[in-house]
Amino acid sequence: MERYLDKVASRVLATNGSSVLEIGSGPGWDAEYLQAQGVVVHRTDGARAFVDRLGANGHDARPLDVRTGDLGGPHAAIIANAVLVHLDRQQFADLIPRVRDPLVAGGCFAFTFKEGDGHAWAADKLTGPRSFTYWTEPGVRSGLEGSGMSLVDANQWDGQRDT
Fold first, then answer.
1. Mapped to the 3 state alphabet, what secondary structure does the chain carry?
2. Whole-prediction pTM
3. Would 64 be classed as within a structural domain?
4. CATH number for the domain that contains residue 60
5. What are the tens digits of pLDDT across the range 15-49?
6. Structural domain count, the chain
7. Does 21 map to a domain?
8. Which backbone phi and psi does 71 adopt, to 5 degrees?
9. Containing structural domain, residue 35
């Protein structure tokens, strides 16, 4: 994960920017890492419990439903680690133009997916089921290019359960 975040930080600093919108901050580990690299991170999460937890730990955070919420801007980067896996393909397609518009020239949208094809429900790690959409690199590339963005870099790594 550090390699992914190092690439984001490098890209952000190369645009002479420092502002990153983090969609789905969760406990805030990625934001902490990016801040140590000199990046300003605007934390958001769709779960009120995470927003409250971040606030209790002294961080500014706001609730954000990635499907409909205001992404603000301008941002040198927008990151979404382990978040967009919960959107279906149409929701992903709807998000891309909304992500593109608040990015500065040369900015990037960095995100992670589970590799594969199709859709599934899983109850791992939580008490209730969660929806997962699996993606292939050509599918992601096609979704981005259809909205005027391009895939600059794609990497794979093995997670605890999936690639």
1. CHHHHHHHHHHHHHCCCCEEEECCCCCCHHHHHHHHCCCEEEEEECCHHHHHHHHHCCCCEEECCCCCCCCCCCEEEEEECCCHHHCCHHHHHHHHHHHHCCEEEEEEEEECCEECCEEEEECCCCCCCEEEEEECHHHHHHHHHCCCCCCCCCCCCCCCCCC
2. 0.87
3. yes
4. 3.40.50.150
5. 777 789 999 999 999 999 999 999 999 999 999 99
6. 1
7. yes
8. -90, -5
9. 2-112
